[in-house]
Fold this sequence. Notes:
Elements: E1 4-8, H1 20-30, H2 38-42, H3 49-58, H4 60-70, H5 76-93, H6 108-113, E2 117-122, H7 126-137, E3 145-148, H8 160-168, E4 177-181, H9 184-192, E5 196-200, H10 211-216, H11 219-235, E6 240-242, H12 248-261
Helix pairs in contact: 1-5, 3-5, 5-7
Amino acid sequence: MIHTLLFDLAGTTVDCGCMAPVGVFVEVFRRQGITVDIPTARGPMGTHKREHIRRVTTVPAVAAQWAAVHGGPPTDADIDAMYHLAEPLQIEVLPAHAAPIPGFVAQLPGLRAAGYRIGATTGYTVPMVRVLAPLLAAQGWEPEVLVSAGEVPAGRPAPHMNWVAATVLGAPSAQGCVVFGDTPVDMQAARNAGMWAIGVALTGNEVGLPWDALQALSAIKRDEKRAIARDRLLAAGAHIVIDSVLDLDAALGGVRHRHRLR
């Protein structure tokens, strides 16, 4: 029986294309004299922001640039400095990227009426959440619990955020929890928590387009991008992949079917 729904924020329920963090990461590295392209900046999306920065520094092209500019590999102090630079930059841009995915909020009353407990998790830090949560609540997206990566021992792909959210919601089992996310680490974290992993392909980080640009794609281009995102999410452990949170009913129906087959 499904009893608990846990949603990632950026790219899954808000900020189509997961646009808010990308420019910040590019800018943080630019200020260190390092050029990071958009795909590289997107690569670790979904992890804690400090871990995201650290992972970007390990990309061979970035590591080579860093050594050429700074005379050696980045230190923990360098990563800390970039993280502390990123946080205020991220907070500054959040209000411009706080719009829910169209159609998502309208489904929440029905889900709650059906008895689902609803929580959310995010790679954003606690100060970022303090800014973002009221903006979302004003638009009707107010989960019963919102757990950030800064509140647990480790962010994704560790399972802790999902476990904490499920515990606060009183979930009787991990097997009845369904996690929706748009990145490979979302899927890994759901699997590591023993929960159902539902990948969200089109609106998330793997396609990386804001809503209007996504709607403007030709059918062929959209199919191409969907296929690439779907394959990445399935490879990371997704049980089911949907286009967006507009497909919640289909996803939950698929989970119920698989649950009966277990």
